Amino acid sequence: MSLHNSGLGTPEQLKDPDFTPPLGSAVPLGIQHVLAMFVSNVTPAIIIAGVAGFGFGSKSPDFHYLIYMIQMSMLFAGIATLFQTVGFGPVGARLPIVQGTSFAFLPVMIPLVAGKGVDAMAVLMGGIVVGGIFHTCLAPIIGRIRFALPPLVTGLVVLMIGLALIKVGIQYAAGGVPAIGKPEFGSLQNWSVAMVVIVVTLGVKFFTRGIISVAAVLIGLIVGYIVAYFMGMVSFANVGRAAVFALPQPFPFGIEFSAGAIIGICLMAFVSAVETVGDVSGIAKGGAGREAETKELEGATYADGLGSAVAGIFGGLPNTSFSQNVGLIAMTGVMSRHVVTIGAIFLIVAGLIPKIGAVISSVPIEVLGGGVIVMFGMVAAAGINMLSDVHWNRRNMVIFAISLSVGLGLQLVPDALQHMPSTAKVLLTSGLLPAAFLAIILNLVLPEELPEEMADDEPTH
Fold it and tell me: What is the full DSSP assignment across 336-382?
């Protein structure tokens, strides 16, 4: 629904966050925001459950935990979005910011739960709650620490997130972690279903317009799901066993506090806070043609952190502002925060109905693999795009080279750290944290130009 048109309001009204378009337009606009972020929002929960090893298969005794995590992804995306659009006290930017479950934390969370089942979730939730509180505390100073994350660092971080997750996409397309080592892993049937999703997604993205193009991944997954159903790969057993309505439960996995989880998630919260500042700035510029105000940047960060902390208490994953919805506002030209509030209400209602989560959990892992190959590839591409703003002198090339080599190397060869303490091993094998740490430190410490470059610039006699 491309809406640089008629009937919605005057150009001045469309740039006003407090303006409410007519309900007949506001509701479809709100649903459009939900469609744009829906797949990305529920995918991290499915990935964490898959990596931990619970919830998959119609006979899995832990299926209800996966359904519950999908529910919480929707519910707390909606609640955190309300923190942003409606706000209270200093919390919330009062702008049309859509919150959702963050991919950025996955490279840090995956080593914490890999192969450990439901029991590992208590440690993860402890890290999320503390990380959310830390994230909240960054709000008053967020404007003053942005200098530590120029495009060289943020581009590298986003690229590393994409590179860390591409492996997950390939594993899912081939049959998922439970199938590794079995004859069906990488079968033609598995790959054919994943390829249907990729081909349909690309076709919809580039040969349609408006909301259909925006929802390309979702449409690709639906077509892949239908194909998988006719190939006998879909089971609805869990849908019948799921409740019609359920409220969230505090600490459904318990809660434990581990140094590795807390440090890793707090460090990523710092990166996520800066990403949110960028999204708020993008919304203010693209939707209203102005710079974001300090109180908007701080309010958005408060909402980010508080949303993550509360989600962790109820078994959800960290959330952050969704960049694809920033682009949607630029496309529609509608800056109304009340439109996004309507979308948030839809998410909250969906999060209270376990049968919706059960239907989502019935999507075969190979179908999801096709979707996430596209999504994670786009994350890596977004990082490369951010790096295009960097002035590639020898100083910046050295910083990038060392950070990428160490980060990606440790991610590819985790056994290189087998003699390290367990906490350090978890943090370093993510690849993302050592790469980000090196890039930040080197960028702050190294002179703006290497001595030989300065010498090259001097006039010769």
Answer: -HHHHHHHHHHHHHHHT-HHHHHHHHTS-HHHHHHHHHHHHHHHHHH
